[in-house]
Amino acid sequence: xxxILLVTFLSLLAAGCSTASEPAHQHTTSSDALQNSNMDxxxxxxxxxxxxxxxxxxxxxxxxxxxxxxxxxAGKNISLLQKMxxxxxxxxIGHKSxxxxxxQQTTSDGIVWNSHATTCNxxxxxxxxxAKMQSEGKSEIEIRAYIDSTYSKTxxxxxxxxxxx
Length: 165
Fold this sequence. Notes:
The chain is an alpha+beta fold. It has one domain (30-154). The chain is 37% helix and 12% strand. It contains six helices and four strands; from the N terminus they run αββαααββαα. The protein has helices at 2-15, 58-61, 65-76, 78-81, 121-135, 140-151, and strands at residues 38-40, 45-50, 103-107, 110-114. Strand 1 and strand 2 form a beta hairpin. Helix 5 packs antiparallel against helix 6 (140-151). It comes from Effusibacillus dendaii. Residues 1-20 form the signal peptide. Keywords: Signal. This is Lipoprotein.
């Protein structure tokens, strides 16, 4: 049984970030429960709350520096990433934008991180590209056009992120 699960996991990992072919249920927990890591069994995502975007979750701190940098960048650019689609296939598990790959929600007393992007180069690259372009003075419309034209080549369906007007 473990061998079958391992083969299935490796096959899904090779196929991309999406791990479900039908929309997953919404993950909801109380704010108190989010103080520690929680796992949504339907997606395999881990959620952890920290006091701010300046404090990374523990599931990132033991990862390579590139992953930590992507999470730091995403945490500081949530509003921008909410306007950028993700092209890893994560719309199939309920994500609405690239921001959802990194952040479950923001609250008045912190941020609830999502582990999804720790295993997905597409998610991380979209976030890093968008933030870099914004720092270069590009408009959100220009950034969105670049993200769409570049990452639509993955062949994955994008998240249902509304167009920027």
